[in-house]
Amino acid sequence: MSITVNNLTKIYGEQKAVNNISFSVSKGEIVGFLGPNGAGKSTTMKIITGYLEASSGNATVCGENVDSSSLSTKKKIGYLPESNALYYDMYVREYLDFLCGVHNIENRKPEIENVIATVGLTREANKKIGQLSKGYKQRVGLAAALIHNPEVLILDEPTSGLDPNQIIEIREVIKKLGQSKTVLFSSHILQEVEAICDRVIIINKGEIVADDKLSNLQKNNNSTQTVIVQFKETIDPTLLSNLQDVINVEKQENNWKLNTANPDNVKKQLLELSIKNNLNIVSLTNSNNNLENIFRSLTN
Asked: Between 193 and which of 32, 71, 141, 182 could a Cys-Cys bridge form, CB atoms 3.0 to 4.6 Å apart?
């Protein structure tokens, strides 16, 4: 296994940020690492990359312990943190050349040009990093993670700040890299995880609540679905949240999304609600058991 986490725990004061978790990721896998804010995702990634020390348990990268072989394991890892700290006064090529020096890369120029082309930075490569948009800064961070051709990639929100076209481009880059590398990929954009990953690990309150192929999770987690309704009129959301079997209600553009374990009953109640309150329903459907529904049911 390229990444192995054994009984990992991280405690800050009296709070357990990560509570005795274990998982592994093999070469050629792209695994989505999901969870609500504060669930322990970034803490776990920082421990794997050697930026944080675990309170107990251990993590190994390519068979080496990240604590006892810190320098050796860091050479094998490409890490894109959520914060993506960069030197804004440096030019793109200058920054990548600096990183080549850090990694003792001898034949620098072809490596720099290759990684610039890989992440789609060619048009912006002559600019200072501080002049770039957020999306292109994110590409510089990904280039920095790739410059030394690591065996393992740890990517924390890699598509943050990218426009839809850029997201598709970076998605293809990650999928291609995943054919020969080990990729642990965290994102709040669940559609991206569905598009890139075959397997997902979901962590909630420091504990792993799911670790399986997405197809298996879709089969085994049929407890909740989402009913989507659109009214012609403006409606008080409490009318929806007070319906029987509704777990939560969310407004998305002109649609109301109702999470429920009994979609047929909720749709029946919505029809009754519309008649009673003289409301016009424009559309009424329920979604399949997608990753968003699975995520909600496991982390609510």
From this structure: 32
Query: How far is the C-alpha of 275 from the C-alpha of 270, rounded, in Å?
Result: 9
- Alpha carbon distance 88, 280 (integer Å): 54
Question: What angle, 0 to 180 degrees and rounded to 10, lies between the N-to-C axes of helices 108-119 and 164-177?
Answer: 130
The predicted-structure confidence for 27-69, as pLDDT tens digits, reads as follows 999 999 999 999 999 999 999 999 999 999 999 999 999 999 9
Q: What own/partner pairs with CB < 8 Å and gap ≥ 24 does 33-38 have? A: 33/184, 33/185, 33/186, 33/200, 33/201, 33/203, 34/186, 34/187, 34/190, 34/193, 34/200, 34/201, 34/202, 34/203, 34/295, 35/202, 35/203, 35/204, 35/299, 36/204, 36/299
Question: Do 290 and 215 form a contact (C-beta atoms < 8 A)?
Answer: no
The secondary structure of 38-86 as a DSSP string is: TSSHHHHHHHHTTSS--SEEEEEETTEETTTTHHHHHHTEEEE-SS---
The CA distances from residue 36 to 7, 41, 97, 204, 268, in Å, are 21, 9, 36, 7, 32
212 and 152 fall within a common domain: yes
**pLDDT, tens digit, for every residue of 93-151?**
999 999 999 999 999 999 999 999 999 999 999 999 999 998 899 999 999 999 999 99
Read off the amino acid at residue 120: G
Angle value at C-alpha 29, between 23 and 30, nearest 5 degrees: 90
Q: Could you tell me the CATH number of the domain that includes residue 37?
A: 3.40.50.300
Same domain, 99 and 189: yes
Position 279, amino acid: L
Q: What is the pTM (predicted TM-score) of this model?
A: 0.78
